[in-house]
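Predict fold of Adenylate kinase; 226 aa.
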Amino acid sequence: MRIVLVGPPGAGKGTQAALLAKTLSIPHVSTGDLFRANISQGTELGLAAKSIMESGKLVPDEVTIGMAKDRLAQPDAAGGFLLDGFPRNVAQAAALDEILAEWGIELDGVLDLEVPEDEVVRRIAGRRVCRNDNAHIFHVEYHPPVAEGVCDECGGQLYQRADDAEDKVRVRLEVYHTETEPIIEYYQKQDLVTTISALGTVDEVTRRAIEALRKNETQRKNDDEG
Ligand code: AP5
Ligand code: MG
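Predicted 3D structure, encoded as tokens:
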């Protein structure tokens, strides 16, 4: 399956993507995590992205699209992928369509996670992520680690992302509404979007997501046959 996850900052994309990727046996590709890995490794790309990410704005398309294309070209993504945080504007969505067309493949679905803004703010305020692997995500209240400040998965140190400060979250939400939300309409025109509520426990949301993806897969098969 080739899936795009969309939703506001703090919706739970990273949390769900990690679980869905395991269930569906496809890699979780997060452009945010790729940027953060580049920042901790001190690469040129990381240096270019760092201050922009910390401001809450989007890294320029030419940098982001190239990085996403390189990642999707890796052998483990040949059988499918779960994209988290990419595409993030209509230009990136159009570029992704072009890349996939060049490779003779297409998206199977776009899963839109819907969460009210006050819940998003609560989720981001309590989030802690692992320094070793940004994909290990915790929450001080909703999903606390066994030992405070220590990652359950790998023992790494937990930290609060610089862009999770309240003023940066406001910028990110604004950017989401103006730049990212229009991709939902873009994909609706291709009949790819399923919207689910991302409220409730992590497990409840995962169940809802799997059900939506399976339903979408069956429908696409029926459409192809019919
Ligand atoms: P990115 O890393 O993609 O951040 P984001 O989209 O703002 O989303 P978040 O990672 O903040 O939230 P999430 O939805 O993954 O939620 P999570 O699962 O952690 O991007 C960061 C920056 O990188 C961008 O601002 C930009 O600068 C740059 N960038 C990235 N991609 C780019 C692109 N394509 N183009 C240009 N620039 C790009 O969950 C949040 C919290 O809630 C956690 O604490 C979690 O434990 C908790 N939680 C999750 N689910 C539940 C639940 N059901 N109940 C209770 N708590 C829950
Ligand atoms: Mg994330």
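The mean pLDDT is 96.
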